[in-house]
Amino acid sequence: MAENKANEFYNQISIIFAGLILTFVISSIIVTCRTHQLDIKANKIWKNIVYSEVKDIQYKHLVECAYIGGTKYENLLLNNPQFLKIVKNNEQDILSEQDWEDKRRRNTINNKYGK
Questions:
Q1: Per-residue DSSP letters for the chain?
Q2: C-alpha closest to that of 53 among 10, 100, 7, 86
Q3: If phi over 0 gives left and psi between -120 and 50 gives alpha, with beta otherwise, what is residue 99?
Q4: What is the CA angle 28-44-70, rounded to 5?
Q5: What tens digit of pLDDT does each residue of 60-97 get?
Q6: Is 31 exposed, middle or buried (0-12, 13-18, 19+ CB in 10 A)?
Q7: Hey, how many other C-beta atoms are within 10 angstroms of the C-beta on 41?
Q8: Cα-based distances in Å from 88 to 48, 59, 65, 108
Q9: How many CB atoms lie within 10 A of CB 45?
């Protein structure tokens, strides 16, 4: 009787572990596919930017490419002097921005005292 209970317990544990492993495998496949799709999309945006005229390049397209493509495409954009100039022109006041902790503190104080 005790051996039968132990076998049932181990069977239940093995089913749980098999489910967890299957979940991890499926999740990793989904993440890999999604990453590949985003890389293809970023590459398409990158090619549109590179093959377009310099005067037609818009800041929002550069931001979109860097956002979707990640660090790889951000570095490609910032290593190009023309694109870097566009980014600098649109982000002139970035050095004057406060970090998020200062903004949070200021908002908390303003909300507390009704300012």
A1: -HHHHHHHHHHHHHHHHHHHHHHHHHHHHHHHHHHHHHHHHHHHHHHHHHHS-GGG--HHHHHHHHHHHTHHHHHHHHTSHHHHHHHHHHTGGGTTPPPHHHHHHHHHHHHHHT-
A2: 86
A3: beta
A4: 50
A5: 999 999 999 889 999 998 898 888 888 888 887 665 55
A6: exposed
A7: 14
A8: 21, 10, 16, 31
A9: 19
pTM above 0.90, yes or no: no
The span from the CA of 12 to the CA of 42, in Å, is: 45
Cα angle, residue 92 at apex, residues 90 and 94 outer, rounded to 5°: 105
Q: What is the end-to-end Cα distance of the chain in Å, rounded?
A: 73
